[in-house]
Each structure stands twice: as structure tokens, then as C-alpha cells.
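Entry type: protein chain
Record version: 2
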Amino acid sequence: MQPEKSAPGEVLLVLVTAPHGQAEQIASELVKPGLATCINVIPSVSSFYRWQGKLQQDRESLMLIKCPAASYPALEERVLAVHPYELPEIISVTITGGLQAYLGWIVNPDSTS
């Protein structure tokens, strides 16, 4: 069975950074209950930022989270519950194009079985 097509704006890419070595556990916490369909973990990025008036530099992992837009509120709530940072990076970007079969799978992952 072919995945359903998705409408523009129905799929989000959510970017979340996490301490090196903790992103995989967070990813599991999001995919297992179905809050996200697919997460790619880029294991090492260098982050430079200002925090509490000081320049910081850290090695982090970056999660590229693909999820249905309807799942975003629950996904954000779960990230906040399991993430170790006081103020984690959570940025959502609306996907307006891409392979329709893939985007349809993000919205309805069980349609391919």
C-alpha cells in the first residue's frame, strides 16, 4: 500500500540539540510513542552561544526530527520533560516540499504495512 500524500505544512522538521551521548535516548523517547516518525542524530556539532552573559562553546548532538504537525505540541512537551537543559533548543520548520511518498509516510507511518 502506498503512503497517503501530505498537504503542504502537514509535516515539520524539528531541530533539537542535546548533550553529546544523550540524543539517542531522547530520540527513542520521541519515536517509541509515535510523537516523531523519524529522527536522524548528527553525533557531533560545535555550538557557540551566549548564556547568562558568558560566551559558551559545547560539543552537542543535533537531532533532525520529522513529525506530523499535529504531533508537535506533545513532542515539545516530551522534549521538555526528558531534556537535561534548562532551556533546550527546540525549533520547528514547516516542510513545504519533498518526496510526497516520504512525507505521506511521516504523517501516516502505518500506511506502508
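Comment: The domain at 11-112 is CATH 3.30.70.120 (Alpha-Beta Plaits).
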